[in-house]
Amino acid sequence: MGLTLSSKSMTLLPGLIFVVISGLTGLSVAATELKRADYTATCQQIAAAVSSESKVYYSGSFTYIKDNEHWASSSSQPSACSFEPANAQDVGIALKLLGKNQTPFAVRSGGHTANSGFSSTPGVQIALFKFSEIVYDANAQTATIGMGLIWDNVYSELDKYGVTVVGAKTTGVGVGGTVLGGGYTYLSNQYGLSVDNAVAFELVMPNGAVTSITSSSNPDLFYGLRGGFNNFGIVTKVTMKTYTQSQIWGGRISYAKTQWDAVNTAIANFVSKVTDPKACVYSTTDYVSGVVVIMSILFYDAPTYPDGIFDELLRIPHLEEDISTRPYSDLIQTLPANASSGLRAMFHWIPIEQFTLPILEMVKNQTLYYGELLSESSGFLISYDLIPFLPSLYSHSDTPTAFPSSRDSGQGYSFIEVYYGWTDASDDEVMLRLGAESAAFMKQFAVDAGQNVTNALIYPNCAPPGTAMEDMYGDALSKLHSIRSAVDPGNVMGLTGGWRF
User: Fold this and answer.
1) What does the alpha-carbon distance between residue 160 and residue 245 come to, in Å, rounded to a whole number?
2) DSSP for 276-336?
3) DSSP string for 262-290
């Protein structure tokens, strides 16, 4: 395996674009500093206009620090102020002032993005923490969830009622990015993605109006919000389908490098034989400061699992095991994503059809090669995650979604998620460049192996900076642009970060 991929390197473009953007950003720092006083004036106007329950905070306060802090240090930046609205009407007041003054802003739910400037800003940082209510409706079989929560809180609260929702699969992830961006989890084989399970949104429009968006009240916006993030305003609440949830069987099992081949064989056998939608295996191959660890999360949506499904993985000698019959909310804690908090970070997403032994061997080689290479700089955690689903993954939505806009057989139904975590900002360019190189190699490997993923869309929540919008939204981009233009003719949402239509 070499570093030169020639024609196979089309997905190197995101890394190259990032280099250009980084240069332009450097030129704009001085201008940003000059405008900071103007941004502070907007902060003061917001503070004077909103209700007493909503608060504006400035540098030096604990709340300001909390509002600006992100899971990945590469995502954080100091804002002129932070604003914690207590109700949707105050969000609307703030949006009108931000648009009037042309002040940049950001919207933070859980703050789990890795991309710089996506939920941070030098202007007004809007933190949605006060939107923390969870209301379960047993008759409608739905839960209305505030966008200031993380899924850990949601699962724990819904445990009390014996139900759950389709959210994130790891600790510390916010509601907003998941339910507005996609949302793959252990329950997706049964119920689809998070976006497939949203039935209503409380949306603060760019003009400040507060409205409820459903498939019947506004089909275009309902389509756009499910995968289109904050292009159409600020969502403060989402109502989701709930499902009866008993205790589950599952947890984490970890293996040493010497067992890698045996684990790969067991995973290949699992995905080729097991068609039970209640069963799931999620594995990570991690290179941490020179040490290789393979972790698998085993999941079965019942207190016990059918004989034989996981036996091969359980028989392999392992370093540690935390598997039991437990609440679903407890299972989420077994994959400690918060352990990598504070690192600079980057994600990539490679759709495939199925994890065959050659694919798994290729991922092993990529982990070792780039783990060793990047540990020579400030690379701390190099992770290649294996996420297999059933071919029926995309069959659970009654209506179209912005993402995935296409649900045909060419989208893949299993995924390799790449995560690089590092400490030194001077290594940003090389990390992004080599991450793009690895992603390009793996996609081409899958295509050359006969897997129908040449035009598969990239998951926006795991796309690196500079990814072309067409690569995430495909033919839907024109429609999404039209919806946004109609909703936001003044381009207020263009003042914030993220993927913009």
Assistant:
1) 10
2) -TTEEEEEEEEEETTEEEEEEEEEESSSS--TTSSHHHHHS--SEEEEEEE-HHHHHTTS-
3) HHHHHHHHHHHH---TTEEEEEEEEEETT
Single-letter amino acid, residue 267:
I
Please give, one letter per residue, the 3-state secondary structure of 235-252.
EEEEEEECEECCCEEEEE
Residue 2's contacts (CB-CB under 8 Å, 6 or more residues apart) are none
- Over the stretch 375-392, which tens digit does the pLDDT of each residue have? 989 999 999 999 999 999
Question: Residue 67: what are its φ and ψ, rounded to 5°?
Answer: -65, -30
Separation of alpha carbons 444 and 422, rounded Å: 26
Give Cβ neighbours of residue 397 (< 8 Å, ≥ 6 apart): 192, 193, 195, 196, 407
Q: Please list the residues that pair with 277 across neighbouring strands.
A: none
**Rounded Cα distance, 449 and 468, in Å:** 25
Looking at residue 162, its amino acid is G
Helix (H) or strand (E) holding 88: helix 88-101
- Check: CB of residue 323 under 8 Å from CB of residue 273: no
Residue 9 token pair? 């390197």
Q: Do residues 287 and 422 touch, judged by C-beta distance below 8 A?
A: no
- Inform me whether the pLDDT recorded for 3 exceeds 80: no
Per-residue model confidence as pLDDT tens digits over 321-358:
999 999 999 999 988 777 788 999 999 999 999 999 99
Task: List 57's β-bridge partners, or say none.
Answer: 82
347's CB contacts (< 8 A; 6+ apart) are 114, 417, 418, 419, 461, 462, 463, 464
**What are residue 295's DSSP bridge partners?**
254, 284
- Which residue in 433, 255, 462, 277 sits closest to 351, CA to CA? 462
Give the Cα separation of 244 and 211 in Å (integer): 29
